[in-house]
């Protein structure tokens, strides 16, 4: 991940994701700038123009929809034209969560204030009042301002470093809201249907891991799914900072996400298997349905969208959004909660989808009133009335839709959802010209006949329908209420099983399978993918999108896997995967037989997930590190390579993930991109001074394993710990505490763990590991000890310990004149400075690539 080998496509993708940058644009007399950003220097160059921050079609559309009361319109538009303030979350699972919050509250809030020149906000930096425990923050400085002087620069550096280390996550404030309404508990199974790049997945995992004890794992888990493989890679990279064993990343079309129902898919195997499996169907306590959308709620951070915006964008996504949401409901346990959210203002993508879900599900699903939850979050109720705009025409009722547009504009887009199929006056397509019927009501953005400003003359007002459903329970967040982006959220509760066959409870709602095939120009920068991962090009391939949307199953109809079994067994035999490797028995139908199934054989290009059961290797690792028997290793280790001799990484999975994988070993439906916590990595040495153990403990896996390690572990005094971080390599004789140096020299060659013993006065006490215990992975060489932590992590740890430990009264760090030169033993395995590229969000939420130094012993990937 993240190496230099990243493809051109991916780099291009990152570049395209960069937002709030100034771009060369063609002068457009119809558009004016309302920028208000601090990039004024560039105005001197007439060829560089700021993004226009208006669009006549946008104004017409949302004025007509009554998205805000008329008296608020100007303020609404004014805020949409302003750059978005930066927001970030402190990662509650971070070692230094409290320190960071303390630093923000007691240092930066005060030191930044004098640098701040008012505006809409009184404070330079403030916690978001609705986010629990002051863990989310809002900063009113733009990136350029942050480079202005030393105080701001210090804050900027703090943000950059904390983000890289994983102590904070930059995330748009409103995007933090949906996971909070999910009411996730630590034992929940959560499905994040459209998860990439993963900011909400990160939040969900934080909640799952809340109140974790050192060395223990929660009983819940998260499945993070996204159709886009590149975006999923970003998610996987981000989640590494979380160090979680409770996550599975999958790549499915969310509308076709498999249900893994053993009874339906493996009826013959289910009886026996059901007894031994933890679960026999993949259902979730919570589902987050943060669907692809037109994204006009992000106009403040992505102003290039102003130019592209048109009403067809929302219409084109409605069908897909509905299918994804319906699939989410069907995968939800009875009693479970689902949040549907978009970063769009458009009622066709929002209330219309919610209304159709309620119509489809009847009494089995309730739209929750969450007005008592997060009371400090300012929100607006959902709309009960809206219209549909197609090709510049306002449509109040489905029966007004011209016949030739009925494959595009579907009944569920309208408030009543009615198709008027039985209505005698279903006769719109009677030869009337659109202009005759609609007068000047033509969208200039569509280039139709009349390029007027487009507002509907009062004499020709099209009457919209009114929904009687309780759509006011939906939440719409608008920018000018709390200086944020816009978002839409609806919270559902599943009261009873989804009635099978109730895709439509009457014919009046039209055929949901008759999908909208008009594809939007831009879908928040996202590419829609088909299941086999080929891009669906919105511009020229409407057929594929139509197919993708048509294939959605609204009830829990499984893809029947049984027929695939024989073929898979064949593939597996050809690949030589199987019992001789000592790994998972993969072909349940033939268990006991020597034929084994490479369970992910059908997912081309995706490595299989193999339960790692090689006792020789596991026992060796256990013995080398003295891993206590109370830590369950057997059954909790997986690899992506079925040849044990070439296994490079071994991942640890929680009991919950294990249950899901075991079910998947039976039904074989999940296309798993990533699973588990990287715990052991194979190491090799060039000079033959190999460690007796071929696997080192990875830094991600160390916190979980730490309380159970009894060998290859030393407790360093603060001064020696600091020297290790400072100099990276320290000779045994140069440790200040000679006893520590002596003990270090007696360790076995290879990976070891050094724990910071904070209290020097309790130096002889038995070590007690808790969540705040600081430990690092090191390499014990012939004559020295080398730290195996990236340079940036070392630096951050040094700075934090400097602040909260060594500068405090408890321990006063004494400088010694001991010669602790950063000399490396040439004979030893040396750390090689490899540069890796990490992707992070910038202050405006855009993804940027940055290079960091990673330190790893040679031969170790
Ligand atoms: C609004 S973004 C999700 C943002 C994400 N929840 C977060 O907080 O970081 C929508 C995502 O849906 C994905 N997507 C688009 N079509 C999809 C489909 N049919 N099935 C699953 N994911 C899809 C896109 O790749 C994109 O990553």
Automatic annotation (TrEMBL):
Q: What is this protein called?
A: SAM-dependent MTase RsmB/NOP-type domain-containing protein
Instruction: Give the matching Pfam families.
Output: Methyltr_RsmB-F, Pre-PUA_NSUN2, PUA_NSUN2
- Bias class Polar residues marks the residues at 449-463
Q: Which residues form the SAM-dependent MTase RsmB/NOP-type domain?
A: 76-495
As for family, the record states: Belongs to the class I-like SAM-binding methyltransferase superfamily. RsmB/NOP family.
Keyword flag Iron-sulfur: no
Source lineage: Eukaryota, Viridiplantae, Streptophyta, Embryophyta, Tracheophyta
* UniProt cross-references to InterPro entries, sorted A to Z: MeTrfase_RsmB-F_NOP2_cat, MeTrfase_RsmB-F_NOP2_dom, Pre-PUA_NSUN2, PUA_NSUN2, RCMT, RCMT_NCL1, RsmB/NOL1/NOP2-like_CS, SAM-dependent_MTases_sf
Source organism (scientific name): Nepenthes gracilis (Slender pitcher plant)
* Enzyme active site: 343
Where S-adenosyl-L-methionine binds, per the record, is at 194-200, 226, 290
Q: Which GO terms describe its biological process?
A: tRNA methylation
Q: Kindly indicate whether the keyword Nucleus belongs to this entry.
A: yes
Bias (Low complexity) ranges:
33-45
Location of this chain's protein in the cell? Nucleus
